[in-house]
């Protein structure tokens, strides 16, 4: 009677305002050829997107990118989100945003902020980010708390920083973050390019899991601290991730060119037609675009998904991963142990190369 | 955040970071990083959580609205514990 239920309408809008970013993280999920995309939506366009999205049930907007604070009109875009009665959440690398501008955004109605760090220390974080940014991130975290907004700290994990997970947890405690995302790298975009440099070892993951368990245990005994999210990477867990909670089901992405997509990467899949908010309403582009309909629901599923009891739990995993690794987006995600092509995942676990290529 | 289940003497209140939104498509609890669609009397329960009512009071108030419904108290406990773990409600200090 009171249980949470799955809706038939999207709840979240992921607004990729730009692909510009001052950082060069080697696991960036933006397209490899992001420089070839034209940033097409003005603040007025975004305003129309937000209002149309709210009409079909969207309640939450993540203002993201790239780095959203590289847009000089972020204030205007935020005002539009507030006006459309969406819950505005900012996902930032912490630069070039400064604390005064953040205070202004809070006054305009921003509710929560996710700040990414690349490691637990300034030297480590700045090295992976390729840009001196850690101290500024720390100031923004403190300012977020001071302004009374919710603070999420996000750290993408991989072979070069997994050993520091305990320090990341300590840092989140010191910053009084509400939430800590310990996000194992997902191999899309630049991360797939750098997969052999980022791939953790099984031993690293086991040690990291144990450290998280201890920290969560202390919280069960009453210690205060952030809600922690740590999920084993799909390359090591034998079952695929329920990517985006299902294709075109709960969340929509609008990319910097204005296309409505089911996830960050789907626009790069060949032969799928997605519609742009400059030529279609948000509702049409979400509901009817051929690309949005292609993998919605379960009818499209191949064996072994079609008869799998988990088909509405993981939705067959990630279409983009199936395409990138197998050349066919309609196959079962090879991260699934039941996929006949699971060996491509097993082999990738053992490919180790030192030194990543920064996003550029 | 703690993981122990809530007790019938506990009092909870909507987190200041959470919004309860009524939509024609159904009510939703909106949190910093996610939104949760509510079914049935989920939003009614949340609206009763004013930080003064205990969980037992909430269950009693609901029982007055829907007399004779089976398992009301245990559902209130389960639901509010889940909401607490997600950060939607926080435990209120004793008044």
Give a brief outline of the structure:
The complex is a heterodimer of chains A (360) and B (95). In chain A, 33% of the residues lie in helices and 13% in strands. Chain A has 360 residues and is of the alpha/beta class.
Question: Can you walk me through this structure?
Answer:
- The complex is a heterodimer of chains A (360) and B (95).
- Chain A has helices spanning 43-55, 74-83, 99-108, 122-129, 134-146, 165-174, 189-193, 195-198, 202-220, 282-287, 290-294, 319-326, 343-349, and strands at residues 12-16, 60-64, 87-92, 112-117, 150-157, 179-184, 227-230, 251-254, 260-261.
- By secondary structure, chain A is an alpha/beta fold.
- Chain A has a nine-stranded mixed sheet with strand order 7-6-5-4-3-2-1-8-9.
- In chain A, strand 3, helix 3 (99-108) and strand 4 (112-117) form a beta-alpha-beta unit.
- Chain A is globular.
- Chain A starts with 11 loop residues before the first strand and ends in an 11-residue tail after the last helix.
- Residues 3-7 of chain A have low confidence and may be disordered.
- Chain B has one domain (11-90): Coenzyme PQQ synthesis protein D (PqqD) (Arc Repressor Mutant, subunit A, Orthogonal Bundle), CATH 1.10.10.
- With 95 residues, chain B is of the alpha+beta class.
- Chain B contains three helices and six strands.
- The mean pLDDT of chain B is 91.
- Chain B starts with 10 loop residues before the first strand and ends with a strand.
- In chain B, helix 2 (55-65) crosses helix 3.
- In chain B, 39% of the residues are buried.
- At the A-B interface, helix 9 of A face strand 4 and helix 3 of B.
């Amino acid at each position: 009677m009171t249980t949470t239920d799955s809706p038939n309408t999207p709840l979240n809008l992921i607004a990729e305002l730009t692909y510009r970013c001052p950082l060069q993280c080697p696991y960036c999920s933006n397209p490899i050829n992001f420089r070839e995309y034209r940033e097409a939506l003005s603040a007025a366009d975004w305003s129309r997107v937000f209002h149309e999205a709210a009409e079909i049930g969207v309640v939450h907007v993540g203002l993201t990118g790239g780095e959203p604070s590289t847009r000089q009109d972020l204030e205007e875009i935020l005002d539009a989100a507030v006006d459309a009665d969406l819950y505005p959440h900012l996902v930032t690398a912490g630069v070039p945003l400064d604390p005064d501008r953040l205070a202004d955004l809070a006054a305009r109605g921003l509710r929560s902020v996710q700040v990414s760090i690349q490691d637990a220390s300034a030297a480590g974080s700045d090295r992976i980010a390729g840009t001196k940014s850690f101290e500024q991130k720390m100031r923004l975290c403190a300012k977020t708390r001071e302004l009374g907004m919710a603070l999420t700290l996000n750290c993408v994990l991989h072979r070069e920083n997994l050993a520091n997970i305990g320090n990341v947890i300590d840092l989140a405690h010191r910053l009084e973050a509400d939430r800590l995302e310990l996000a194992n790298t997902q191999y899309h975009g630049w991360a797939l390019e750098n997969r052999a440099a980022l791939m953790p070892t099984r031993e690293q993951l086991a040690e990291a899991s144990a450290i998280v368990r201890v920290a969560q245990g202390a919280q069960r005994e009453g210690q205060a601290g952030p809600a922690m999210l740590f999920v084993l990477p799909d390359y090591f867990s034998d079952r695929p991730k329920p990517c985006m909670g299902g294709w075109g089901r709960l969340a929509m992405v609008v990319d910097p060119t204005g296309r409505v997509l089911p996830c960050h990467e789907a626009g790069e899949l060949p032969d799928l037609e997605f519609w742009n908010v400059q030529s279609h309403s948000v509702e049409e582009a979400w509901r009817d675009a051929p690309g949005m309909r292609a993998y919605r629901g379960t009818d499209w599923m191949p064996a072994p998904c079609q008869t799998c009891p988990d088909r509405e739990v993981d939705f067959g995993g990630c279409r983009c991963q199936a395409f990138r690794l197998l050349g066919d987006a309609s196959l079962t995600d090879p991260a699934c142990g039941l996929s006949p092509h699971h060996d491509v995942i097993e082999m990738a676990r053992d490919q180790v190369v030192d030194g990543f290529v920064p996003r550029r | 955040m703690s993981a122990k289940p809530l007790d019938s003497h506990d009092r909870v209140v909507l987190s200041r970071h959470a919004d309860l939104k009524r939509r024609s498509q159904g009510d939703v609890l909106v949190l910093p990083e996610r939104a949760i669609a509510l079914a049935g009397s989920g939003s009614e329960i949340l609206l009763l959580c004013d930080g003064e009512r205990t969980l037992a009071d909430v269950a009693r108030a609901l029982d007055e609205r829907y007399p004779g419904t089976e398992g009301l108290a245990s559902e209130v406990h389960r639901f509010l514990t889940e909401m607490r773990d997600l950060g939607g409600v926080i435990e209120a200090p004793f008044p």
